[in-house]
Write a structure and sequence with these properties.
It is elongated, with a radius of gyration of 18 Å. The chain has nine helices and two strands, in the order αααααββαααα. It folds into two domains: 75 residues, no CATH class; 85 residues, no CATH class. By secondary structure, it is mainly alpha-helical. A two-stranded antiparallel ribbon has the order 1-2. The termini are far apart. α1 runs antiparallel to α5 and α7 crosses α8.
Length: 161
């Protein structure tokens, strides 16, 4: 029995999947061979990651790869649409949104960095332009807990005013 798509390490990163398909000119079979998985596993990953069609990917190849670079450079990416976990059995909490992704929520380090910088799930959701449920789903996926906010003397003074 072949492994599920989410059991293949090469398919767990949205950017890697996009880059492999783009590097092979939209040919899924060649991309699957490069990633060390079957074409069926790659097809399932592209469905979950909402890479709608290979033609669309080829047309927007530069945009997709620049999104990847923006994520790697620490810039935040969002499209203003709400997203939810697809909730399917075997999904394991991978985020699935309509039309586009929130790549900033695809790694534990970036989820922790976002929460550290903005201090609340609500603020992270506002910055990314996604729903709070999407942020909670990413936190649950990586086992990230929201740290309690330490009230400083300066905050106390502001609260009294």
């Amino acid at each position: 029995m072949t492994a599920k798509w989410y059991e293949m390490p090469a398919l767990l990163d949205w950017g890697t999947v996009v880059e492999a398909i783009a590097a092979n000119g939209g040919n899924q079979s060649a991309a699957a061979a490069d990633l060390g998985c079957t074409a069926a596993q790659l097809k399932k990953a592209t469905e979950v990651y909402c890479i709608v069609s290979m033609k669309e990917l080829e047309e927007g190849k530069a945009a997709e790869l620049s999104l990847r670079r923006m994520l790697l450079s620490g810039m935040l990416v969002g499209d203003g649409e709400g997203g939810t976990c697809c909730g399917r059995i075997g999904c394991r909490g991978y985020l699935m949104v309509r039309k586009t992704e929130y790549p900033a929520l695809y790694s534990e380090a970036s989820v922790r960095a976002l929460l550290g910088e903005h201090k609340s799930v609500r603020r992270v959701a506002e910055v990314l332009g996604c729903s709070r449920k999407t942020v909670w789903c990413a936190m649950r996926r990586f086992g990230v807990r929201q740290e309690k906010l330490i009230v400083t003397e300066e905050m106390r003074k502001r609260l009294r005013l």
